[in-house]
Amino acid sequence: SVGYKKVISLREKDSVEEYIKTPSFDAYKLSKEELEEEYLLTHLRLKDGINKEDYFDRFSQSFDDVYNSFIENLEEGLYTNDEKCFKLTREGFLVENQVILTLAMAI
């Protein structure tokens, strides 16, 4: 994954040719913490949620070990959590930003 520090517009170039030849953004490699945040942000917005095996494959750590103590602080009924996945319920999607912020504190 890449993060974007600054998007450069055509107005910042002298010509269209220069704009086409040079990248239109400054890219940098995301840190492990930033990658985990991005993973949480994207996967918790999906109906399938976070696949725990996929999480382990990506980050070499158990989702449960990292997040269970924070999940305990969430209201019941906002999520389902079993051995294979963690995902938001219909009610959880209504407050998904709050859930994501709670879990992001673990990173």
The H-and-E topology, N to C, reads as EHEHEHHEEHH
Please report the distance between the alpha carbons of the first and last residues: 17 Å
Trace the largest sheet across and list its strands: 3-5-4
Tally the helices: 6
Q: Give average pLDDT, whole number.
A: 85
Number of DSSP strand runs: 5
Principal-axis shape equals elongated
Q: Could you estimate the helical fraction of the residues in percent?
A: 40-55%
Strand percentage lies at: 15-25%
How many whole angstroms does the radius of gyration measure? 18 Å
Structural class: alpha+beta
Main β sheet profile = 3 strands, antiparallel
- Low-confidence segments, given as residue ranges, are 4-10
What does this molecule look like?
- It is a single chain.
- By secondary structure, this protein is an alpha+beta fold.
- 46% of the residues lie in helices and 19% in strands.
- The protein has six helices and five strands, in the order βαβαβααββαα.
- Strands 3-5-4 form a three-stranded antiparallel sheet.
- Strand 4 and strand 5 form a beta hairpin.
- The protein is elongated, with a radius of gyration of 18 Å.
- The chain starts with a strand and ends with a helix.
- About 7% of the residues have low confidence.
